[in-house]
Structures are given as structure tokens and as C-alpha cells.
Design brief:
By secondary structure, this protein is an alpha+beta fold. The chain folds into two domains: about 60 residues, Arc Repressor Mutant, subunit A, CATH 1.10.10; about 100 residues, Mannitol-specific EII, Chain A. It is built from six helices and ten strands. The protein has a five-stranded mixed sheet with strand order 4-9-10-7-6. β2 and β3 form a beta hairpin. α1 crosses α2 and α5 packs antiparallel against α6. It is elongated.
Amino acid sequence: MFLNVIQIAESFGVSESVVEGWVRNESLPHTLDRGRLIFDRAQVAQWAAAHGLAAQAGFLAPESTVFATGCHLEPLLKVGGIWRDVVASEVSKIIDRIVAGLPGTLPPVRQLLSQRLHARGGITWAPIGGGFALPHPSARIALGRDSGTLALLLLRDEFHTPDDNTLITRMFFFIAPS
């Protein structure tokens, strides 16, 4: 994962000019991309450890995933909700409503995500048997740690996945926090 100057500055609680000074004077690992400084997260973390720095916020803060903290799915389900008695023809609209409520994202990001989900192959349906599936975005998405969602859709009628025509009656739609 690559970060920009602003993300590095926010992670360490310093100004952008301090980060630029680290690049010039402290050999902070970086890459120039079309005139912009970008930073590999892993390299910056190693550099920071060697210089006695610890990030407390942002993309460089110590990772605390839902699985590392005991798999707390409840907050994600509160965001996405439980949808009962869903008509199969409305699944796409429900997914749009779930994306519209995605926390920690701006409207243009939600709109782009919705467009990607509606594109052919935009959702991996992942049937797991017994009429149950785990649909999720096909493309990898990095929206941030606070931007995940999980929704349970209980269908009123039969729904067949677009990919392989598998019959589904229940699904957990998710966008993993990243």
C-alpha cells in the first residue's frame, strides 16, 4: 500500500514540511511518481521504527483489525442492517442503499463504488451452500478501517446469482474494513 505526504504527516502528527524534511535529511524511503512523493507503508514503518517514531493515527497506526480484536462484527452489521422479506428484484437497490450508508466515505467515493458494483462482474457472489451466499465487491477496495459494512439480506423469493445461476435465499453482503 502506498501513502502520500498528507497521510504520512497525519500518521505522525507533523506537518507536510516535516515529512519533506525527513525525505531530504533523514533518508525517509520514497518514490517519485509524476512529480509526487509516494511512500510504501511497510518501508515507512521500518524507517520509523529505526528512528524511534511511532504513528498513533492514520494508515501507519498499529493495526487493530476486527479479527485481531476478537472479531466484533456487530458494529459492521449495525451499519449495513438486517433486511427482511427482500424481493429478489430489489437486491440491487438494497445494495445501493447499503453503499449509500457506508461510513467514513465521501459521496463521490460511494457513487464510484456503486458504479463498480453494478458493472458486469462487479460483485463476487460466493455461494456457500444451502441457499446462502457471501456477495462482496470483486475488486480490492481500500476505504479505511472505519468504512466496512455487513448486511444480512433475507429474501422473500428465489434469487439466482448472475455468475452461475445458483439459487440463493439468504446473503451476507459485505465490504471489508481495510
